[in-house]
Design goal:
With 312 residues, the chain is of the alpha/beta class. It is built from twelve helices and nine strands. α5 crosses α12. Bound molecules: phosphoric acid mono(formamide)ester (CP) and norvaline (NVA). The site of norvaline (NVA) has 10 residues, from α6.
Length: 312
Amino acid sequence: MAVNLKSRDFISLRDFTREELLQILDTAKMLKMHSRTGEEQKPLEGKTLGMIFTKPSTRTRISFEVGIWQLGGVGLFLSSDELQLRRGETIEDTAKVLSRYLDGIMIRTYAHQDVVDLGKYSTIPVINGLTDLLHPCQAASDLLTMREKLGRLQGVNMTFLGDGGNNMVHSLINAAAKVGMNITVGSPQQYRPAAEVLAGAEEDARKSGATITLCEDPVEAVNDADVVYADVWVSMGDDEQQRQKRLDELAPYQVNGDIWKYTADEAIFMHCLPAHRGEEVSAGILDGPMSVVFDQAENRLHLQKAIMALTM
Ligand code: CP
Ligand code: NVA
């Protein structure tokens, strides 16, 4: 039976049941098909999405702005520099004011708690466009891409190699645990996922049959993987003074032709982008036949349209 997601925030994948997530994926699949066949509808006619950014973005900004427009609504880009938030207006007051003008808010920022607070004080849906802790829109879109490429999600073996403590890994762990995928994080000890994320995902994994494995050996980590996923080694908000140290410590975890020999036949390579060729991934892999990174980027549009159409 169809589940009703009207007015719901989209802040963490943990807030959704497996059925709800699958409904979002199915809606995205339908919207993608309609965009191909020219049968697009405009369910958000007359509605406005505010988009607050305190960090840079290419994909998130453009896919949300184009997406709301395709659904019949309007997107309002709100640079944090130009909001009174920067001069100390509280999140609570901002949330209450924006709720009087807008029909939805998408926010990309540093502190995850700021997004949680925005959701708490807003009377309209709040969508998390990335925080230091999570990147749920990307991970949900990636489920759509994996389902398209592999034909299934349950039982798929996904390996994330690199900085195992960043927002991307955390949301991929949450996603895998919900839908019953096996996720292995290959990283040095000091780059492991946050304990709070692991604890929450373990609860979901018990229900879905997913497994979550942490592994220090990059070769062992990618062994038999259907999906190998990489992300930058220095995320937005990480200490730039530590850049070289991070690159040195993570160097053994580069996804390249040597490591690819150990993956499953027909394995795919995924990356949320932007990528740094020669750091977390070699150009041969990122630009090779195993790479689905631009399909991932496209699916951000379809998946986020589904989130907006279902919640706003
Ligand atoms: N993957 C992703 O979120 O890209 P942007 O930082 O360009 O939005
Ligand atoms: N982990 C990266 C993801 C970018 C989309 C960052 O936060 O910079």
